[in-house]
Every structure is written in C-alpha cells, then in structure tokens.
Amino acid sequence: ITTDAPSTITGNVPQAVTGLLQVGGGRYISSSDYHDVNIFNSGTLELSGPITVSGTWNNDGAFVHNNHGVTFDGGDGQIIAGVTTFWDLTKVVTTSQTLYLQPSHAQTVENHLTFTGAPGELLFLRPIANSGTWFIKADGTHTVDYVNVANSNAGGGPTITATNSVDGGGNNNWNFGAVLPPDTPAVSNSGQTYNG
User: Fold this and answer.
1) Please, is 182 exposed, middle or buried when counting C-beta atoms within 10 Å of its C-beta (0-12, 13-18, 19+)?
2) Cystine design at 172: which of 11, 25, 133, 153 (Cβ 3.0–4.6 Å)?
3) HEC string of the chain?
4) What distance in Å separates the CA atoms of residue 195 and residue 1, rounded to the nearest whole number?
5) Pairing of strands 185-187, 193-195
6) What is the average pLDDT across 185-195?
7) CB 48 within 8 A of CB 75
C-alpha cells in the first residue's frame, strides 16, 4: 500500500499488509498487521489500535500512536530505523534473534518497553551493521529479560534494568544487575557465539 496524496486515508481493521506499507504523503490511519513500514518525511501513520510489524520499520516522517503499541513479531534481523516515539514497544522471542536499531537515531517509549528472550535463547540488541551507537529512552516501565545488549545509550530517561542478561559492552544507563556468568555462551541464529 502506498499513500501519496495530502489527504487522510483510513485502512480496514482486519487488513494485513504482507508487502510494504509506504506512507509517502498525507495521513494513513490504521490498526493492522504489517510486514515492512516506511513513513516518508511528508507522511503520517496514525494508529487506531495496536499493530504488529514482521519486517523493517523506517520512520522519517510522523507517527501518532494514540496510546497504542507496536509489536515486532518477525524473524531474525528485524530493523528499527528513523526516529519514533512509541507508546508500547515490544519484541519477544523464544528462539535467539537479533534486533537491529539505527545508530545515532533515538527511539522513545512513553509507556512500556518489552525486550525479552528465553533461557539459552537471548534476544540480541545491536546497531545496524554492528557499528555506532543506538539510542533508546524508556520513559515509562520496562520488562527486559534474557537479552544481550551492545552499543546502546539509554540516557535521558530512567535506567533500563536487564535481568538474566549479558552486557555486550559500550552501553550507557543500563543496569545488568542479574547477568549471565561470563562463560555462559548464547548462540544467535547466525551461528555466532557470544560470551558475556
């Protein structure tokens, strides 16, 4: 779906976009399941309910959450790019995955941040291309468990406490109070082994 006109378009509630939602101009109001989402600088995506994203999120425009959350429910290698203020931001995995966030671009979560993996199946949080620093500000509450975090700056908001997790280095304003022992390996889907 592509929107270009400087008008308002309302999507259907049960609608599922399996390709690319591209908001090129105007305002698109929806509550749906998406694969890739691309919001251009002249476009606005406004939520009428919670949404899921199984691919890449790129926001160079405006995003109006209306107190609705975004859940990233795709496979290994999902990307969050651009600058977005989320209400709820959720990524939960039961097998190890990596979520990439664009360096030097800040994500803000106003209500609740959820990043969780599982025992022996960590969620890796990394900057795109494993270069630079990704920024996140969690203004509300958070649930962060079984993650491996590297090169993240969570300054400007409350400290993010990650339980059962690995400090991958280069982090600011994170508390790894209950970390995995340094000799505990966690294997990502790519087969690379990371140690805390």
Assistant:
1) exposed
2) 153
3) CEECCCCEEECCCCCEEEEEEEECCEEEEECCEEEEEEECCCEEEEECCCEEECCCEEECCEEECCCCCEEECCCCCEEEEECEEEEEEEEECCCCEEEEECCCCEEEEEEEEEEECECCECEEEEEHHHCCCEEEEECCEEEEECEEECCEECCCCCCEEEEEEEECCCCECEEEEEECCCCCEEECCCCCEEEC
4) 42
5) antiparallel
6) 41
7) no
| pLDDT per position as a tens digit, 70-85 | 999 999 999 999 999 9
Cα 103 to Cα 129: distance, rounded to the nearest angstrom: 9
**Distance between CA atoms of residues 110 and 90, nearest Å:** 12
Instruction: Please report, for residues 51, 64, 104, 135, 188, the alpha-carbon distance to residue 17 in angstroms, rounded to integers and kept in the order given.
Output: 11, 19, 29, 28, 28
